[in-house]
Amino acid sequence: MRNNIILISREITAFIISGLVLVFCMAMVYIDVNWMNDALHEASFTEITQEVMLLLIASCYFLCAWQRSQQRSVLLLVGGFYSCMLIREMDFLFDFIRHGSWLWFALATTAASLAMALRQPRQILPCLVSLVQHRSWQMMAAGLLAVLVFSRLFGMHQLWEHLMMDGYNRVVKNMAEEGSEMFGYTLCLIASARYLWQTRPQPVSVQALPVSRHVEHAQPLSASR
Description:
By secondary structure, the chain is mostly helical. The protein has helices spanning 2-35, 45-67, 72-89, 91-94, 102-117, 121-133, 136-154, 157-164, 170-198.
């Protein structure tokens, strides 16, 4: 009974915290639209929040990979994946070097992550199976689908041009697309936090072996006869 109450309390707490994170992220969209006069661009609060979330996710995976030798390969791969997403989000910075140069940095990050993960190749498949079987994977997959698929389709300018016709406003399209991405990144952040927390190594408790009350004492052999 007590364990059930504790479990339900934990899930309710996690639900409330997740809701607060979503409220904070959508508040960034509200600030950009309502207070910053429709400033949905690369330096907006919305874009910065997305980049900070990706940085947090990737950093947490790399930090845990350094601490957990048994999960290192898959954590490096996942951290590298989110690092590539961060590089893509910050493509405007790499455009100062050359337009589209973000791709080369993303490929270099991918190669480095693969090289480090392949140092322990036998870990990769079992750890990946463990990841996709964890209950946080469904939320993470939903977040990735929202970012990589839904936001792209929902933000197609043909859809919004047909919807608003002569009153087409690109800011509305950008808000819908960036809001969808924000929601997806938030799901990825929450899922990653829960996965890394719930799969953390448990401290080994060394318990003293119980001493039997009835101890057989060996009788000493007498040296004299």
